[in-house]
Amino acid sequence: MLPLTPEHGSYTKERCQLRGMRAVTWLLLAAAGAVVSPAAGATTVDGHGPWRGRTGLAAAGGGGRTGPALALSVDPFFERDAVPGQVLSGTVRVRNRGRAAALVRVEVGDYGQDRAGRPRVSPPGTLPLGAGLWVEAAPRFFLLAPGRERTVPLRIRVPEDAATASFGAAVFFSAEPAVAPPLGSGTRVTGRLGTLVLVRVQGSAPAREDGAIAGVSFPRVALSYPVSFSIRYRNTGNVHSRAGGELSLMPLTGGAAVREELARRRVLPGAEAVFQGRLESGPALSAYRVRARAVGEDGRTLGRPVDAGVMAVVSWQLPAGLLLVSAGTLALASLRRRWTPPGRAAPVA
Question: By C-alpha distance, which of 282, 278, 280 is closest to 263?
Fold first, then answer.
């Protein structure tokens, strides 16, 4: 999911167009006597083709009504393989889940990741592997009524001289009220959300999906469950991968290994990602040898597996419970010996 980012830059012509569209919309609604009603609720967008899931944006307004005035949801990912000179087509579905009509603006920028795996978004043509100049999205402005959905066509033109690599772009959608709220009705909040576009280009050089484990983190001695693990992975290939981690916990006393799959992430070339997971339960007293490996989307091992060492689990929950029961039993026995029943004289020494 792309982060919400503040709008920047000067858009003198676009601001004039926005004001004109708001004015026309206000006049049409006033003439028709229309009343904007709240949406019945959010509808989950089913994933199909290269799309998976969705991202959402909500901006609350004043006026005493319940629910956000503006609430958009879009499909978050668009991934394709391509060759130099190819033209790709697709669509992004945008839904207004708020209770007011929204004026939506569409913008395109470059997308990348720094060495730590943090997302970077810049104007088109400013990142080394940015694809913002390749992406055409139309229309750039449109009105969206509450509860309605619209598809925005995308056209991606891969240059003839594109090298073998993964290129990224971000298509941003920002929303503001189609009708300006009355003075004193509350504070208006706007924001942006985006769809990530990743294009894996197969040029003259072969595509190489590879990586290496840069570190494995876990407690050497765990005192309770669950036990948390993390694998730091570095993409050493020339294309992006949807990589994940897998831990194998081998009991030192023998028995079957415990395998834990860690969450997957999209990692661009040269960037790192941290895969996290945890062991929910197990024996109160145990010791494991921890082995880790990175896996690609097809389950293939990326790089070399790592022997990360030994972990001991000494859960104090069971010993502490036995200790409390024993202490309680001793205390009751002591009280029983000291207590003298009524009408019975205490023995004389």
Answer: 278
